[in-house]
Design goal:
About 35% of the residues lie in helices and about 20% in strands. The protein has about 350 residues and is an alpha/beta fold. Strand 10, helix 10 and strand 11 (about 260-265) form a beta-alpha-beta unit.
Length: about 350
């Protein structure tokens, strides 16, 4: 049996209250401080994963008690210790590879140091996350009655390693591509690289506020601490794919713009009769792409640290995408602000956008 684990954590104090009812009556900061004293533990046993090849896998969700705010702004030594302890719990139950979920995947150097302190493979899942996000963006365009081949597309943060990969995945499937970022020299080099590989028309813009109202399809992958895309910035009927953590798109977009579709990536259908033993708000047998990367590697017997650090390669993204397809994983929907997006919701946005 192939064995894996995946580290999850509460996004905020309200998630802690789902497990500890008393927490709902206490101030959020107090709940977060108390949670820091809880040891990582097994949350559930994952069973029933069966590849299209016949391979099987089982896994475990490992709960790290730290909220997103503590992981991003708390004492680094505490966060690192809790992450090491989380992976050690995974080792103890028999996992041979562990995936880092949500904000644990971007803490510090994004898993590089952590992998040196533990005895099993570690992956952030970012390669399959990016592959599925772009696949999801194209599918979202179709559901919004938008032809990607006719769409004006843009990538915010294009000069970064993730942005570069996204540009390569987009360039042959959109009408035009705008590279958005502050590093002019890096953007010029990327533009030349894309054009040499054969591409749609490409332009460069430094100020997102100027170009965002012109774009039909937007992918955002910055490393900004604060949100960079707001409700007033977007074109009516636009599809926005926010791959960044922390997120680039303000929650105001969801509240104020009923004519814009924001997705944060794809929801993946897991092969077999999978039982996660835990409800994270998705339909049955579906999971985040980062979780799915860990499962794919386990099914393939690739117990290696496949995606670590902040750098991604196009080759790695295409490889894990092919392995996911081989084992029967497929896009099953979208998520937005940590929740699954329904077809009814998309239909309502399409109607509001006049499509």
């Amino acid at each position: 049996m192939n064995r894996f684990a995946f580290v999850i954590h509460p996004l905020d104090a309200s998630d802690v209250a789902r497990k500890y009812a008393l927490a709902r009556y206490l101030p959020a900061r107090l709940v977060e401080r108390m949670a820091q004293g809880i040891q990582p533990k097994v949350v559930s046993h994952i069973t029933g994963i069966r590849s299209a090849t016949g391979a099987e896998a089982e896994g475990w969700f490992i709960g790290c008690p730290l909220t997103a705010r503590v992981i991003m702004n708390g004492k680094p030594e505490l966060v690192e210790r809790r992450l090491i302890e989380s992976v050690q719990v995974a080792e103890q139950v028999g996992a041979r590879i562990v995936g880092l979920g949500a904000f644990t995947s971007i803490f510090g150097d994004a898993g590089i140091t952590l992998a040196k302190h533990v005895g099993i493979a570690v992956t952030t899942g970012n390669s399959l996350t990016v592959a599925t996000a772009i696949e999801g963006a194209f599918r979202a365009c179709e559901l919004m009655k938008m032809d990607p081949k006719q769409a004006a597309a843009g990538v915010v943060g294009a000069a970064g390693s993730i942005g570069r990969v996204c540009c390569h995945l987009l360039k042959d499937h959109v009408g035009s591509l705008t590279l958005i970022g502050l590093q002019q020299d890096d953007l010029e080099a990327l533009k030349q690289e894309l054009e040499q590989a054969g591409s749609c028309p490409i332009t460069i813009r430094r100020d997102p506020k100027v170009v965002l109202p012109e774009l039909d399809l937007l992918v955002s992958v910055t490393s900004a601490v604060d949100t960079v895309i707001h409700a007033e910035d977007l074109k009516r009927g636009a599809v926005v794919c926010d791959v960044a953590r922390p997120r680039d798109v303000s929650k105001d977009v969801a509240r104020k713009r009923n004519d814009v579709l924001v997705i944060e990536g794809g929801v993946v259908e897991v092969p077999g009769n999978v039982d996660f033993g835990f409800d994270f708000g998705f339909p049955p047998r579906t999971a985040y792409a980062c979780m799915s990367e860990t499962m794919v590697l386990a099914l393939e017997g690739r117990y290696e640290s496949f995606t670590l650090g902040r750098g991604l390669t196009l080759e790695g993204v295409l490889e894990i995408q092919a392995l996911a397809k081989k084992h029967g994983f497929r896009l099953a929907g979208f998520r937005s602000f940590e929740r699954a997006v329904t077809t009814e919701h998309i239909a309502a946005i399409r109607k509001a956008a006049g499509r």
